[in-house]
């Protein structure tokens, strides 16, 4: 656990990347009462960034392969925010250095393979998880757009479902602990060059090359996942294995509800891994949770044309990623280091993340069944802008509530450790802004009895 005598409250590592620069900008412009330092591989780029931001703070140039330098950097701060990806290539040294220094760690990864390497959600015999426990350190990955909206949005939705069942408590025979809760998540991106329009031009170079690195490591990740599934055969685990679809609907279908319409396509991301890990953690800590929890996630496409465009671009990128050095050169030329969507694009883009939480219950008197359903939405700014907001606020939340988390150590999801505090913090911070970074709303609630 980090000491109160640390020189800095936050150190942002990887600050010269596209998303890292946005994280640095948000931290330096809003945290007037906190001590912030920036770090990265290039002193020159750090100085240029600071000049662009018009701010002053201390800078540290440390290579991601310099373990001793990273550990010395980590010893200076209470929390380190890691923005240097791809994380499966560069992240483990930073995590190990934070653990050795007794410094809490947050990052913005969206890589399932890296999250798996940290022991989230499978901590058994994981060397990094055990080291974090021994050091009393919190390691919390995926604190950006991947995967805060999905993680906290699921918590918000399940709580709304719990409140609805409490209102109908006299009618139902069984509490939530005896039911199965399913959550479906639908992501829609607005804007002319958004994913829902079939365009990947709004992806930054960091995100783009992280996706490619994840594809290269997908085979080994799937093998580890299948091995764990074989080991769990015959167990009583109630959380579906991470990455496995839990929806009874076709993998591709048309979805239409209030404020929600489009072609739903299964979305490959770290969100299902994180959400199910949070659910598993809640199940371990409390008996007041559903007997079975399932989660599935989709991206909503605006039209068949948009779907075709996205499929064509994805196929082309995948083919080039397999085309050796020639393909790699083309991809790097298309998305050079530091590239990201401009401010005009970011100001015109937002994400609406819809959640449908449902459960079936048995009525006490008649023996008939009823279905309780809640439709909520989490609306955020453009994903890179809101990643800066989420990651910095998560780090500050750790600092402010660390005294309440004295027994918390290891590698966990944001929702399972900071869920209550961070959700309240984000709602409060957004409520006092003219252009809220994030909002959570209940759109529909339904309690329907079946004959």
From TrEMBL:
Source species taxonomy: Eukaryota, Rhodophyta, Bangiophyceae, Cyanidiales, Cyanidiaceae
Protein name in the entry: Saccharopine dehydrogenase NADP binding domain-containing protein
One Pfam assignment: Sacchrp_dh_NADP
Gene Ontology biological-process entries: glycolipid biosynthetic process
Annotated Gene3D superfamilies: NAD(P)-binding Rossmann-like Domain
Residue stretches making up the Saccharopine dehydrogenase NADP binding domain: 11-108
GO cellular component, one term: mitochondrion
InterPro entries in the cross-refs: NAD(P)-bd_dom_sf (IPR036291), Saccharopine_DH-like_oxidrdct (IPR051276), Sacchrp_dh_NADP-bd (IPR005097)
Region (Disordered) residue spans: 223-250
Family under the similarity heading: Belongs to the saccharopine dehydrogenase family.
């Amino acid at each position: 656990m980090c000491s109160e005598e640390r020189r800095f409250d936050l150190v942002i590592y990887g600050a010269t990347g596209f998303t890292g620069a946005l994280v640095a900008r948000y931290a330096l412009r809003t945290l007037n009462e906190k001590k912030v330092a920036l770090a990265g591989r290039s002193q020159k780029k750090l100085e240029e960034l600071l000049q662009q931001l018009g701010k002053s703070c201390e800078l540290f140039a440390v290579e991601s392969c310099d373990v001793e330098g990273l550990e010395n950097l980590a010893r200076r701060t209470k929390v380190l925010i890691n923005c240097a990806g791809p994380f499966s290539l560069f992240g483990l040294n930073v995590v190990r250095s934070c653990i050795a220094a007794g410094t809490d760690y947050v990052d913005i990864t969206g890589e399932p393979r890296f999250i798996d390497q940290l022991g989230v959600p499978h901590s058994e015999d994981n060397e990094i998880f055990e080291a974090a426990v021994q050091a009393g350190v919190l390691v919390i990955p995926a604190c950006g757009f991947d995967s805060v909206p999905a993680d906290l949005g699921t918590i918000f939705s399940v709580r709304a479902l719990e409140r609805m069942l409490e209102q109908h408590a006299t009618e139902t025979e069984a509490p939530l602990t005896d039911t199965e809760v399913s959550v479906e998540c639908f992501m829609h991106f607005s804007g002319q060059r958004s994913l829902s329009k079939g365009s990947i031009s709004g992806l930054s170079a960091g995100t783009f090359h992280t996706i490619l690195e994840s594809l290269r490591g997908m085979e080994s990740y799937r093998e580890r996942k299948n091995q764990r599934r074989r080991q769990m055969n015959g167990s009583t685990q109630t959380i579906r294995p991470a990455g496995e679809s839990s929806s009874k609907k076709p993998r591709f279908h048309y979805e239409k509800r209030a404020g929600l319409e489009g072609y739903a396509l299964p979305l490959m991301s770290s969100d299902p891994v994180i959400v199910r890990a949070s659910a598993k953690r809640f199940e371990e800590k409390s008996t007041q949770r559903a007997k079975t929890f399932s989660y599935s996630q989709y991206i909503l496409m605006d039209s068949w044309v948009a779907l075709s465009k996205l499929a064509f671009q994805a196929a082309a990128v995948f083919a080039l990623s397999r085309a050796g050095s020639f393909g790699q050169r083309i991809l790097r030329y298309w998305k050079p280091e530091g590239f990201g969507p401009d401010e005009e694009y970011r100001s015109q883009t937002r994400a609406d993340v819809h959640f449908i939480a449902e459960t079936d219950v048995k009525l006490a008197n008649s023996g008939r069944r009823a279905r309780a359903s809640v439709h909520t939405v989490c609306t955020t700014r453009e994903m890179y802008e809101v990643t800066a907001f989420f990651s910095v606020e998560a780090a500050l939340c750790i600092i402010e509530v660390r005294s309440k988390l004295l027994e918390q150590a290891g590698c966990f999801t944001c929702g399972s450790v900071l869920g209550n505090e961070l959700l309240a913090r984000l709602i409060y911070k957004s409520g006092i802004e003219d252009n809220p970074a994030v909002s959570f709303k209940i759109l529909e609630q339904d309690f329907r009895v079946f004959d």
